[in-house]
Specification:
By secondary structure, the protein is an alpha+beta fold. It contains 16 helices and 18 strands.
Amino acid sequence: MDKHRAPRYPSYVLSKPDSTSELEPVADSAVSRSGGRGALGPITSGAKVLIVVTDDQNQTVLELIRNAMLKAGAASVDSLTWSELGLPTGDFSAADGWRELSDEHVETVIRAGERVEQDALLKFLARNPDYTTIYAGDAGEGHYKMALGARFKANWMYRGYEDLVARYNNYPAPLQRLLEQKLIALFGRAAGVRITDPEGTDLSWEVSEEEATLWERGAWIPWHIIGSTIEGLRFAQVRPSFGGKPEGSLGQFEPHAARHYPTINGVISGTVNHTGFFPRIEVELEGGKITRIEGGGEYGDRFRAIVDRFRDLQYPGYPSPGYHFLNDATIGSNPKTFRSNEGLWSTALPWVGLGPERYRAGVIHFGFGAEHEDPEFVNFGREHAAPVKHMAHVHSYFPDYDIKDRASGSWIKVIEGGWLTLLDDPEVRRLASTLGNPDDLLSYDWVPAMPGINYPGDYRKDYAADPVPWIERDTAGEFGEAVQ
């Protein structure tokens, strides 16, 4: 077994200290972190901080960070729950992966896109305008920044004890940034992409020189690198942080969509999405659009219903009718993220239950749905009661991701069997050696066990038809090596 693919789990998070005083330096460190996803620092002197949390927020963790922020110079640190802002809450389980396409989620996306949280926050801030620094959400920092402006600091990544002590939230920012810079630079060289994995994924597309330039410009989100050309170039055209502007960007997108989507062909398979687990699904694409969805249990049924519901709707800027376009193939880039035990089988989050695992280096998550931020596109969705953001996802944990180099015509192995190959790059290892042990810093703390792929057993028989029982055993530490 390749050492990079052998199952392992972060046992170090399982031991809790006898006293919370042991965690005070950890909280101080979290508040001082100024780089990477969900960075809490630096704290501006006199800042009036608002943290929006889920209803299952660990109050001890929240209080530790609140005190650390006050010590760092904040004038006040307040918190409130999403349910206090009118958003749904409850007790949900990752065993029900179909929830990603629950009726409530689908109708919420149709009504508000990904802005339901931002809209709720904006209404609150209109009544409470004095907050200068806001932490909210577990993803979508770009959407929050566009909606809230400079007041938005970062996503809130500290829901539980595991989040506070996890190595991924303390990963050296210069090393993380170098990894991401090198990865994104490869996109600028691309003439084509092919992604395969042992669960059955085999997807490819072509990249023009102009698309590669735009893709490289629009691909950087910490831990969440935009690995699909079409989404990266769209972000470059739309997001101000990448030099774009929403207004009028749909006209810039349309010719690329017409040229690029026909080159996207293949199949995507898996058993995991952002919300949880489901029987193996197989999603076939031709010309960038879904032509067949097989399996997936209730998730598959709901996915097929979404495709059928909007099959004949012609979105502006898209080359043919339908909502069912490929949107993203996003690459995780933090070596230390893992599948959390806290909240996996019981969480207050109605639509997102898997937290940081999709950000682990070498993991790819695919997303589906016609999407754009141009006001013309958003207004079209409102007028036709249609979604303007992607919804469905499928994750891949052991992919190969290859880029065809435009200059040489040779193929560059970006990810191999789930291993982000840049972790072996000499410059990356050199920097890591100045920060600690490079073998430790540049290794994974978590690799899931999948029978027939990286663990003895039969993938179809032991796992694919119902992955939950196997995953329950895996998360309990039965299969993997303990990482101390």
